[in-house]
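Quick check before the chapter quiz. The format below is the same one you will see on the exam, so make sure you can read both the input and the output lines.
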Amino acid sequence: MRMSLALAMLLATATPAAARVGIETAVALSAAQRAEVDAIAAETLAATGVPSASIAIVQRGAIAYARAYGQARPGVRATTETRYAIGSISKQFTAAAVLLLAQDGKLTLDDPVAAYVPGLTRGGEITVRQVLSHTSGYRDYWPQDFVPALMTRPINAQGILTRWARIPLDYAPGAEYRYSNTGFTVAGLIVEKQAGQPLHALLQARVFAPLGMTGVTEIDTGPLGGPADSIGHARWALGPVRPAVKEGAGWLYAIGELAMRPTDLALWNINLMKGGPVLSAASKAAMTTPVMMTTGQPANYGLGLDVRTRNGKRVWSHGGAVSGYVADNRIFPDEDLALTVLTNAEFGGAQDALSDRLQFLLRQQPPKIAAARDTLATFQAGAIDRTKFTANGNDYYTDDAVRDLARTLRPLGPARLITLDADRLRGGLTVEVYTVTFAARRASIVVRADPATGRYEQFVVDFGA
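Here is the expected output.
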């Protein structure tokens, strides 16, 4: 398929990662995989209007690929040295700081927060673990998807807590999971009291430096300012892309204050998967184990990290959003894979679209999705594997039908994402409904199959109205 001028221009601005001391690059993606990653990134930026994205992929304990695409700021292309705000992905570093202090014997996760930050509502009942897992009951001070006027003015942590953590709780401590930035403001103050130094200084000395994360900076006290750094962007509906309004000093403290390169975050991902010089085994387990609520149900959140099991495989992840930036970080420890996507726009959803597509490309898919992907690709190539179809299916897919399918489907390019939306029984057959995303179109696939053999009775690709 011929690449459009827009896609070619986006790829022209991409810069491959240069080798740097402290970053392992022994394991690389294949040339075919790199080409697919680059095409996916270019397609996503073109479709969403997001100015730039930068990615890092970890496989088998090393950075396998890193590349940047698009414009970091007007007239300045993004490179793998470009730094982006990571938003709430910062929370796992605040949690790591607390865990380091626990390792030092300066606190425990089950201590009441009142022992360190006095005057908070029910602070004698709420634990450090609960503020790090969004189960404390403290009201979130930033539920909006924009920066309210109040947040353009400076504030300090105590000012935030006076307004949002010295009022009645939203629910009893430990009874629910509700995302709350306020809890991490409490955690930041706990760190500084027990460490006797600023949160960022502790993280720099005990996390970033040991791991070789040399690109990390903070953006709470001011915006990214380097000539190669990115700037954040906003947009109303399909209006022009504009520079985003920056939060005032103090609002990002301990909840979303970090900016870095994707390769810096990749080094942290490697450390979490492999173990390393930062967190003990007990601390890592505390961070990556779902906290249990008083109802007996898991919160699906550890400490600063979303932790789940999907299709029998563990997934540790977190998104991040601050004004002008959205990020996504996903770790698949059972597959020794991690994906980091950073963007300089608060619109468009490029971070999730990119992560979903990279995950589809690089992870082993569940059997039914893998089979649907392979059958679709075979049709696109103008062929059919008749051993995978029932007698009725083989009668239906004549040679003319296969030629028509190839003529229609081949120009769309490979499937970028396939999701299984429904799977049920009818008339002795399974009924599976998939959504398939190509570079520029979506379609449905409706499969009916023999549940005993898995052979397809039908495999209908429908583009709807």
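If your answer matched, good. Residues 1-9, 14-25 have pLDDT under 50 and may be disordered.
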